[in-house]
Amino acid sequence: MNERSSFVARLALAFTAWTERWVPDAFIFALLATVIVFTAGVTLTTSTLTQVVDAWGRGFWELIPFTMQMALVIITGYVLASSGPLKRLIRMMAGWAATPRGAVVLVTFFSLASAWINWGFSLIFSAMLAREVARRVPDVDYRALAAASFLGQGSIWAQGLSSSAALLMSTPGALQPAVRDIVAQGGLIPGGLISFRHTIFLWQSFVSVAVESVVVLTVMYFATPARGQGRTARDLGIDLTEPPEPPAGTADRGSTPGTWLEHQPWLSWFVVLLGGTYLVRYFMAAPQPLNAINLNNLIFAFLLLGFLLHRTPARLMRAVMEATPAVWGVILQFPFYAGLAAIITATSLNQQLAGAFVRISTPTTFAPLVAIYSAVLGLFVPSGGSKWVIEAPYVLQAAHTLKVHLGWVVASYDLGEALANLVQPFWMLPILSLFKLRARDIMGYTFVVFLVLTPVVILLVTLLGLTLHYPL
User: pTM of the entire structure?
Assistant: First the structure.
């Protein structure tokens, strides 16, 4: 007699059926946001139609460096996860799962843990782990496994080392000068920079990560369908057989001097030594090493680690080529988000939105309102970094007015922003091709997590915010 699935599991399956019918592609959300913000700029501000058009056009390309950074986060994450040592680690870890629920909880745990380190790495590493687990536990619901691999991106990633908003606030030159001036408030915050020490390294942030992790693991334990009641990879017609690897050593025998050089590990080791020496010197020279962490340094460190793990330039190049299809959504959509930010900052929309926050908020309610607003806006702008570029001017201005701890405002934004990823399919795109699934196939599970996690986040940002004081 088959075990009966829990209520949570049946609810997840029902939501999956709904999302398969109604959820559009992520790019549609970006286009809808453009229509809404453009209309607001024309109708709710004193700017003329042509001024709003010009602001959008000028701003369209302003995030090209940041777009490249986000693409490299995804690529370097794939490079690490696809290396030989990591593949062997994944096979070992997959052997720890024995039951469908155990399999889903295992993937969820490592998705959360790896997302705190780097969200790009987590997406690929967790997806590869989930596929390997599906081979070891063939009767597990394949869609639940795929959803589990994404849950770090839908919960704690933005409280970790690759938090886009925290990195933008701590990286000189990453935001427009006008935004830095708002944060600085005449020198109150030197340079308008907020270091990791005041955002993701707050003890309040660590508490939030711990609580969210427990909640997500618990939800997925109960959401996993019982054996025989879900849909396995075989049921979905998905072949999990891995293509055979080339015989050891054959890739290293080049037929020409050029190909011979492509397979020489000493070239990679030289780059690792050179880059590693630079990073050591950089952090030793910093008065406060934690304050010296920024987006460029993290990407650089992951790239160097990719050189080390892949050993030869040829293997590294192959991994980068395999990763590039996953970044097409970033390249296509981020310029539209830059245009949205330009409209908001070039018109008086940022001032009006800041004023609205002040009117409806108190110092106690501001943080949860920021989290809720961040989650809602995330449906239209599914990127922690580009969305923060849009929100930062008026959110931080309102924080100064209400005298709320600025670092916790960034953390609250992060906690809310991650929730949107559970109901917006954009960041699922890089892993769906690995699973051979569509976003709507897994969103029933992520939506159940969203329903449970949202009130928890609101409670966390409210209560923990009471322990912090303005400005940092």
Answer: 0.79
